[in-house]
Structures are given as structure tokens and as C-alpha cells.
UniProtKB/TrEMBL annotation:
The keyword Transmembrane applies. It comes from Didymodactylos carnosus. The lineage of its organism: Eukaryota, Metazoa, Spiralia, Gnathifera, Rotifera. GO terms for molecular function: G protein-coupled receptor activity. This is G-protein coupled receptors family 1 profile domain-containing protein. It is found in: Membrane. One of its GO terms (cellular component) is plasma membrane. It comes from the Eukaryota. The chain crosses the membrane at residues 20-41, 53-75, 95-113, 134-162, 182-204, 234-257, 277-299.
Length: 329
């Protein structure tokens, strides 16, 4: 057996093991983290802030993306995945997956725009950060994303040969694959990452300007320039997630663009195995970005940590009192 064949077998084995065990770990951590995010951001101290609504919406989308993406990936390693064989389930699963992945990222992009507005000295710009605009944009973005990925119900098919298709459930012809991969790379990764990076940078500049302002009086004008503590904390949380999403999202976009534009090139089995291994690994990176925000918020934000610990103490007190009542009876 040649070295190339051995390497192909090794890469396929590693890809299977990663999809099986790392996916389980990501799914468990992501489910717990996003559910706790939802609980924390629904608290009154946070849910009245427009940025918190974007974080809440992103957590809901991430939860759906993790379940629709990772459960089937885990099952496929045991040859138990019905998605690969059923055209209807294949289409529904990918529509849900692509839509929720995209909305999760775009909600963070909208949050970065919101934090830019709230950090501006201009009062009119700050007023653009409000709950009415937030709910409106969340609804519009959700509908637009569903329309963009409506093509999946036509383009995707099951039982595809691998290779040339990277997955058994994937775009069934080249025009569909070109549209789908370009849409995924541009709409899901490149544009939102650009928006997050741009407005994250502008927000940092605004915060630095505000920090350089020295209050000489307690006038109303100076008071309007101060940023409230929750807003500062949410900016800090956002900037951490912007870096995370950009670092983990860009590689999969580059890989998809490369694989699509080189589809008609003659490739060896080793090259195809390397591409498949890269795809599987980078997709896991994408799911990691959906699973760890809670833990980053907990480490980087005092406000988020205090809110979470307050909820945890309430839960412990309630459980203790319930136990005491049962003992007395």
C-alpha cells in the first residue's frame, strides 16, 4: 500500500473521529452555553438594552444551528444519518442550518452597528439605538435570510457521490453549488465580518474619544456624553465576539471559494481527501464560534457575570427552601 493511500485513509479516519467526538463536545457545551445566554439576556437588567436583544437572538439562532448541524454530523459517523438518503430531510435540514448560521452571525454584525451608535457623541446617532429599531431589524433580517436560502429546496439533493460532491447531501449541480457556496462565503462570512470589523473599530475610536473627555462641570451636556456601565460592558462583550467570529469564520469561507472555483480541475484522491478534511475541520471551527460566547461573556464582562451569579444564587436558594419544605413535611 503506497504512502498516498495510507495518508488518505489516515485523513478519512481523523475526519470521522473529529466529527464524532469533537462534535459531541461542541454540541453539549454549545447547548448549555446558549441556553444560559438566553436565560441571562432575558433578565430585566439586560433585556431592555437593544444590544442584548441582538445577543439573545444570536443565541437562539446558534442553538438551532448547533442542533441542525451537529446531530446529523454525529449520526453520519455511525452510518445512521437519514439526511444523506432522504431528499426532503436533506433540504429541510440545510435550509434550517444555513439560515440559522447566517442570522446568528448577522445579529452580531447588527449589534456592532448598534454599539457604534450608542458610543457616538452625536445625540441623533445615539437615538438610533433603540428597541423599536432592534425588533424591526431582527424581523427583517430573519425574513431576508429565509428568502436567500429558499434556493436550497431546489438545489440540494441527497445520495450524491462523494467525490465530486463534498457531502452526500449537498448542491446537486455546478450552478447550484456555485450560487450556494458564494452565498455562504459572502453572506454568511465575508460581509458580516467586514461590518463587525469596521464598526468594531469605529466603536473603539468613539470609546477612546469619550475617555479623553474631561468633565469640568456636572452640566447636562457633559452628562449626555457619559456612557452607561451596561453599554460599556456590552461593547466589551461584543468586541470579543467580533474577534472570535472573524477568526473562526474566514477560513471556511476561503476553503469553500477555493473548492468551488477548482471543481473542474483534475484532482488526485489525496487532494480530495485533504479538501474534505479541511472542510470538516473548518466547519467544526464555525460551530465552535457558535458554542463558546457564553463562556467568553462570563470571563470578560462583570455585568454578565454578576447577572448570571445572581440567577445562580436565586436557583440555589429556591432549591434549598424547597428541600427544607419537603423535609418538614
Amino acid at each position: 500500500m503506497s504512502e498516498a493511500v495510507n495518508l488518505v485513509l489516515s485523513l478519512n479516519t481523523i475526519a470521522t473521529q473529529l466529527a464524532r467526538y469533537l462534535s459531541i463536545f461542541i454540541l453539549i457545551c454549545g447547548t448549555i452555553g446558549n441556553m444560559l445566554n438566553i436565560i441571562v439576556f432575558m433578565q430585566r437588567s439586560l433585556r431592555l438594552n437593544p444590544c442584548s436583544i441582538y445577543f439573545l437572538s444570536s443565541s437562539v439562532s446558534s442553538l438551532f444551528a448547533l442542533f441542525s448541524g451537529l446531530t446529523t454530523k454525529i449520526l453520519s459517523t455511525y452510518d445512521l444519518n437519514p439526511i444523506d438518503e432522504s431528499p426532503v430531510q436533506c433540504k429541510i435540514r440545510n435550509f434550517l442550518l444555513y439560515s440559522t448560521l447566517t442570522t446568528s452571525t448577522w445579529f452580531i454584525a447588527l449589534a456592532s452597528i448598534d454599539r457604534y451608535f450608542i458610543s457616538c457623541q452625536n445625540v441623533k446617532r445615539r437615538q438610533l439605538s433603540n428597541l423599536k429599531n432592534t425588533y424591526y431589524l431582527v424581523g427583517i433580517l430573519t425574513v431576508l435570510t429565509m428568502l436567500i436560502y429558499g434556493e436550497i429546496f431546489y438545489c440540494f439533493g441527497a445520495n450524491l457521490s462523494t467525490p465530486p460532491s463534498p457531502l452526500p447531501c449537498y448542491s446537486k449541480n455546478y450552478p447550484c453549488r456555485l450560487y450556494n457556496d458564494l452565498t455562504f462565503a459572502i453572506i454568511f462570512v465575508l460581509i458580516p465580518c467586514f461590518i463587525m470589523s469596521l464598526f468594531g473599530y469605529l466603536t473603539i475610536l468613539n470609546v477612546r474619544k469619550l475617555n479623553r473627555l474631561v468633565d469640568t462641570t456636572l452640566s447636562i451636556q457633559n452628562d449626555t456624553k457619559r456612557m452607561k456601565r451596561p453599554d460599556r460592558q456590552l461593547i466589551q462583550m461584543l468586541l470579543v465576539q467580533v474577534v472570535l467570529t472573524t477568526m473562526l469564520g474566514l477560513p471556511v469561507a476561503i476553503q469553500r471559494l477555493y473548492a468551488t472555483f477548482t471543481i473542474y480541475l483534475v484532482k488526485t484522491q489525496l487532494q480530495l481527501s485533504i479538501e474534505n478534511f479541511a472542510l470538516q475541520l473548518l466547519l467544526l471551527f464555525t460551530f465552535i464560534s457558535m458554542s463558546i460566547p457564553f463562556y467568553l461573556y462570563l470571563l470578560t464582562s462583570t455585568l454578565f457575570r454578576q447577572t448570571f451569579m445572581g440567577l445562580f444564587r436565586k436557583y440555589l436558594m429556591h432549591r434549598t427552601s424547597t428541600t427544607q419544605i419537603h423535609v418538614l413535611h
